[in-house]
Amino acid sequence: MEFGKVTDLQAIDFTLPPDHPLTAHSLQRASHSTSAQIYVGCPVWANKHWLGTWYPATAKDASFLSHYVKQFNSIELNSTHYHLPDIATMQRWKVTAPRHFRFCPKILQEISHYQLFDGTAAPLLAEFCAHLQLLEEKLGCAFLQLPSYFTPDKLPLLENLLHVLPPTFPLAVEIRHPACFQPEFFKRYLDLLQHYQLSTVITDVAGRRDALQLALTSSTALIRFVGNSLHPSDFQRLDAWVERIAVWLEQGLQQLYFFLHQPDNTLAPELVVYFIERLNQRCQLQLAIPQKQAQVQQGKLF
Fold it and tell me: What is the pLDDT of residues 127-142, one digit of tens each?
C-alpha cells in the first residue's frame, strides 16, 4: 500500500488516539444477544512467496484461494477495485470458501473514482452489488475507498451514491483527503454514515496519523493495518489494537474485520498469527491460527 508510506519511522508517534465520542454510543446501541464475529486476513491470496510456507510448495496458481481459505477466515478483496468479476467467478469463489469465510470486496474504481463525480454511478453500482450478493452469506463488509481528491465539498456526491445503494448492503467507507478529518466536516461525514447504517474504514498507516480516527458509526469495525516489514513497532501497535478491541468487545462490538498489510504482503501472515494469538489470549477467544505447512522434501516429511 502506497498510501501513507514512509521510509523513516523514528519520528512517528504510533500511539492509538482516544475513541471518538460516537464510538461508545454506536456500540451501546448494538444488540448483545450474540457473540461477536471476528474476521482476520490479508489483502491478497495470490502470493507465490507463500509457497512452501503457508501454502504447499507444489500448489498451482489456480488453487491459491482454496489454500488461503484453509488458513484465514477473511480476505480484503482488492481485485474487485479494478474489474467487475463475472458471475461464474463469483460462484467459483463462493463454492471454494467454507461457510464461515467472508469476502470483503473493494468497490469498483470506476464507481468510486470516476462515476461518483459525474453522477452516473447508479446503474454500475447496482450491477456490482448484484454480483457481490451472489456470495450470499459469505459476503462480509464491502468497502468504498474514496480517492485522495474527494474533498469536503464533494460530500453531497457521496450522499447521492449512498442513497441508491441497495438496502441492507453491507458497506464501510474510507476517506483520505486531510481536510476530511477536520472536525466540522468529519462530524457531517459520520452523521451521514450513521444515517445509512454504514460503517467507517479505519486505516492505521505510518505516514498518515491524521487518518487514524477511532470513530465507529455502527457495531461493525473494519480496520486496515499497514505494517513495516515486521519492524518492532508493528508488534507494539498490534498490542495496542488488541487492548482497544477488548474494550470495544465489552462495549458491544458485533463484527470485526481486521486486515494486515505489509509492503509486499509476503510477511502479512506473520502479523496475522501474532495478532490472533494476542487477541485470543487477551479476550479468551479461540480463533483459528494460521499454520505453516509441513513440506515433503526428498521423500521425507518435514
Answer: 999 999 999 999 999 9
